[in-house]
Design brief:
alpha/beta, D-Maltodextrin-Binding Protein, domain 2, 2 domains, three-stranded antiparallel β-sheet, 19 helices, 12 strands
Length: 433
Amino acid sequence: MKLLSALVWASMILAAAGCRDEREPTEIVLRVTDWGSPVVESDFMRIEREILEGFEQQQHRAGRKVRVQKEQIPGPGQYAPKLTMMYVAGCAPDVVHLDASCGALFIDNGMLMDLAPLMARDPSFDRSIYFENVLNITRRGEAVYAVPLDFTPMMMYYNRKLFQQAGVPFPRNGWSWEDFLTTCKALTVMPPGAKMPTQYGFNFENVLPFWIPLLWTGGGDVLSPDGRRASGYLDGQATVEAVQFLADLILKHRVAPSIAERKILGGDAFLNGKAAMDLKGHWTLIDYHAPDRQLDVGVVGLPTRTGKPVTIIYVTGIAISRSTRHADLAWEYLKYMTSAQVQIKRVASGLAISGNREAADFYRARDDQDNPIEAEFHQAVEYARPAWGATVENFPMCEAFGQEMMEDILYGAATVPEATRRAAQYMDAVLAP
């Protein structure tokens, strides 16, 4: 509850401003929040508008005048705090696009409606159309607080052209940390006399949601299994060795860019052809396959030290505010947005894997058989773990401590054991009841 309490003061600002919807007297306005900038125009945003207009037309045919009022919240890391302030101020939206990696904040503070009763009494709703393990991420016992819209496991991308030029075989599932390091070295190009490589084997980014699955592949973790403490886990032997392995990629082996080198490179090293591998989600395919890029990429599971495959899965779900006055309409919107017909249109850009099995299989069936990207992502769904933020309310604060920890290590301000021990103590403090 600490994060929620810290935001209460801001509710006065929102309350003073009011929670407005612009409507004609006879129309119903369904307020829907999502992240992203409302001023950024893209093919995806145009498709999204067409989809929302389709819902309005569907409701019009049913005799209701409905307008979907999309309220987007821009800015990295701003969605959860600003959405929380809307709830505290009493101007919650009707429908929430829920980032499950911070879902605990909204679920455990009673902001969202339990959808299980709506599912049970609606004969047209079939929960079997969704990936069960993805749907379960927002469950609490028998209660269900969101239905998956789309999702992505984090996977290892590789630039097939750079591999072919170097004469290096493409990586295969089941590869080890040693295989990964060997591959990174083979793909790194350091000209004689140069101060930094002109090409790196791996594009490491200091973003905890990106690198936490690499801790898991080494048998480590940030938190205890019950999510209540970091001490003994973040600073445990397996995690310390995993963090050291990551740091050595940059500081010892120089197969991934340092913080300073990333600034010199500018932009995304993998996207710009300056790194041969990158750990990202499905959404990056939009950029990789853009007409001005057309990167020839492959996808493979993460290298593992334990021999067991593991990765993290990030999910966007559709949830309904407990305070909504339009629960039935919000439920119709949820079903519409997660239907196969809408999902096939919505994920055509490559944004993510559809939470609807039929739509997901539609694109899997169209895979390039010589480079089956969708099949690799689908395979990872079976063993992927949810983000800690799905069940631990204050984990977003832990993510910030983790990033600071890694920064201290990479700048040489602390050794790995020192940095992990200190970060674990900070995390324990925010996780304490």
